[in-house]
């Protein structure tokens, strides 16, 4: 099985993401294998990674900081072991070396790979973040961000600081699922399909799908504040993590330059709107984001040069409140 996203290639030269492996669920039911318990679980992330960042976003905006602690790895992939060539996420050796990156406070691991090896002796998948870790059973609960955010939304409400916020309300669930579907294919995973394609045709197909989906978002957001109406939902958080990386990274590194985010008035203002939800800005570490992408994919950017611009200020005023009056 592929050990890194850089190897996930079909015969046609298209990027094909493999599925996550650990799919357990934390539940409010006290009899479950992974019951809700304050302090029991740890979220391992990289600030660079959009999938991990959506979990961190939930942790912050649902007010789960007291219940679930988290650690970010260093932004640039390094050798994870001396005995082979694998490059991946590693922890900082001290908290002072790289702001935002810390040593592993739970297991003392040197790499994310080590966590997977602690959890399973025959794991053969990729060593991805996010990892939701159970300190009690010393294992990975789940490494699939789309499932982790659902748990954070609904299962921890007895101990969440912001239990009233429901990002997956029952009356919008089918609309959210349908929206997630085309946004995942066209945009969230779409930018990777553009960037990791090894042949012209799959690149062009991915670009076309990406811009059709972005145009569709622009159209929806010209009429309403959020993707599914007048309340923020899971679909918005999932879209945001890609949009916030778009002009700073994907436009250049993944060749998504047909149109920039800041050329879409509604999408651009919308990105600022989501960024300004209390707690969200702390989940965006642009230094880690830029260092990671430009520094960890030598086949795409062999010299690891990090472009200087464009340094967009997403905390500047936006016009989205016009829809909520
Ligand atoms: N399905 C996973 C995907 C996570 C993922 O692809 N993470 C990337 C970082 S953005 C990773 O850790 N890649 C490590 C590698 O490719 O070796 C999720 O959404 O949780």
Automatic annotation (TrEMBL):
| GO cellular component terms attached to this protein's record | cytoplasm
InterPro entries in the record: Glutathione-S-Trfase_C-like, Glutathione-S-Trfase_C_sf, Glutathione_S-Trfase, Glutathione_S-Trfase_N, GST_Omega-like_C, GST_Omega/GSH, Thioredoxin-like_sf
Tell me the GO molecular function terms: glutathione transferase activity
> What residues does the GST C-terminal domain cover?
169-293
Catalytic site positions: 49, 192
Record site: Lowers pKa of active site Cys: 250, 293
Which residues of the sequence carry a binding annotation for glutathione? 89, 126-129, 144-145
CDD domains in the record:
GST_C_Omega_like (cd03190)
Which SUPFAM superfamilies does this one have?
A: GST C-terminal domain-like, Thioredoxin-like
Protein name (database record)? GST C-terminal domain-containing protein
């Amino acid at each position: 099985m592929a050990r890194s996203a850089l190897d996930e290639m079909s015969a046609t030269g298209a990027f094909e993401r493999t599925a996550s492996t650990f799919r357990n669920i934390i539940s409010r039911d006290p009899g479950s294998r992974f019951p809700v318990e304050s302090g029991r679980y740890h979220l391992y992330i990289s600030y660079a990674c959009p999938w991990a960042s959506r979990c961190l976003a939930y942790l912050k905006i649902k007010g789960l900081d007291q219940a679930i602690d988290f650690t970010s790895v260093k932004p640039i992939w390094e050798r994870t072991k001396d005995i082979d060539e694998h490059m991946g996420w590693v922890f900082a050796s001290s908290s002072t070396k790289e702001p935002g990156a810390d040593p592993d406070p739970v297991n003392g691991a040197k790499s994310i790979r080590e966590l997977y090896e602690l959890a399973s002796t025959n794991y053969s998948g990729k060593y991805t973040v996010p990892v939701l870790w159970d300190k009690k059973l010393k294992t990975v609960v789940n490494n699939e961000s789309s499932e982790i955010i659902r748990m954070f939304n609904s299962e921890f409400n007895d101990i969440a600081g912001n239990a009233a916020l429901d990002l997956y309300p029952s009356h919008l669930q089918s609309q959210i699922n349908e929206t997630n579907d085309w946004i995942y294919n066209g945009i969230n995973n779409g930018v990777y399909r553009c960037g990791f394609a090894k042949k012209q045709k799959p690149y062009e197909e991915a670009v076309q799908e990406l811009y059709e989906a972005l145009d569709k978002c622009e159209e929806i957001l010209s009429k309403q504040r959020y993707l599914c109406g007048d309340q923020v939902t899971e679909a918005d958080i999932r879209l945001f993590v890609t949009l916030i990386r778009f002009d700073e990274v994907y436009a250049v590194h993944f060749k998504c330059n047909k149109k920039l985010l800041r050329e879409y008035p509604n999408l651009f203002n919308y990105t600022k709107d989501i960024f300004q939800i209390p707690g969200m800005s702390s989940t965006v570490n642009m230094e880690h984001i830029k260092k990671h992408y430009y520094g960890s994919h030598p086949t795409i950017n062999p010299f690891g040069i990090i472009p200087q611009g464009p340094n967009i200020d997403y905390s500047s005023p936006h016009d989205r409140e016009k829809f909520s009056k």
